[in-house]
């Protein structure tokens, strides 16, 4: 972060100094990240040894851990795995007495693995050892969170066999792309490399070959950085699993539709699920920011940035410090806005915000806190730390849920300790030593919807469908906002840090 002294010398040097610091965000150490190969096998005694040898012969900087899930094999596969493990210490074995399918096997493997990255391979497919470093490269270089192996990307040479199979696969891929809004070339990725912290937060249910389709569909809902890498398939291996026909087309499309529109749980991270839902209403987010932006200065701290749904709307400010306690959110913010020289990212608990030395010297004139304070039990402490960080004359712009009578199961699911009465919100702002200069209600249509959803329909979650419906009704919401007698879903409070007395006298 550029200091105030540096700015006095010459302002052009400030961007250069920030640019020089950027390589630290690229995390060079990622080149040595550990890798686990996750492999589910069932009755593959005749092909497994060769497959393992190809994995271990891959030209990698690290020796991969191989987690093999024996899913109820009865042909001697388990005994073979035990023999292989005696001379290959990186092999870890999970044994299922009965076949339980792809999803549960993958879940067991992800819990057992000890590496930072996981690559999911199919032992039935013709795996080329040279493909593994290709899959690994974009993730270790931090240009992607997941890499998919594609047989249809351009290569120096490609196999010309299996035209009908490829035709159906490409047709299915186009349909899947249209539904998921991605640009994939191979509906059957030959190898999926993904970060462990992401994989372990994705709920998987498929038992058969559609597991890859389910995974990619759910990854698309995460809005992750996904890339495809050209891979090859051994033409000698044309197993049942590699075939693709008209019945596979209908089965795969059904799977995509199911996990895109009907199975709403694409992540086990409840907070992330909610933030993605809110992100599906960009017009509402712009309306919200238009209500609070008149109180913004030039040097802003966003307390509780989440995944950046609002961040992008004031990223043009001279200085924007984004703070969140969740490492997943902070990493997403870095990926999304890391190229911005005026922005910094901090993984920090708001309860301890006053101890952040870098923010103490940031000369902040605005702290924005939208739908965050209600998640914190000791909200008075946080408001006092806000006041300490601000420059005299700076402002805290606060938006919190209003009307305690509207507290429902949705609030409980979201982790809300409270909904605020207007008097409570202003009183706590004043207790922190801030002068309240503005207080108003916001989102009257949202209050009606919240009451119907939580009180009448007894729902306990907020879905992207609800947000998209609200987005469609936004013109109506703006009209209803004029009906001041209606209750509001949120309250906006702005508190200003007093100027020193001598400055006032001057």
The dominant shape is: elongated
Structurally, the number of domains stands at 2
- What is the CATH topology of the largest domain? Spore Coat Polysaccharide Biosynthesis Protein SpsA, Chain A
Helical content class: 40-55%
Lay out the secondary structure.
Blueprint: H1 4-9, H2 13-21, E1 35-41, H3 48-56, E2 65-71, H4 77-87, E3 91-96, H5 102-112, E4 117-121, H6 131-140, E5 146-150, H7 163-180, E6 192-195, H8 196-199, H9 211-222, E7 226-230, H10 246-262, H11 270-279, H12 282-292, E8 299-303, E9 319-324, H13 327-337, E10 343-347, H14 357-360, E11 364-370, H15 379-389, E12 390-401, H16 409-414, H17 422-431, E13 435-442, H18 444-456, H19 464-472, H20 474-480, E14 490-496, H21 501-505
Parallel strand pairs: 1-2, 1-4, 2-3, 5-7, 8-9, 8-11, 9-10, 11-12
Antiparallel strand pairs: 4-6, 5-6, 12-14, 13-14
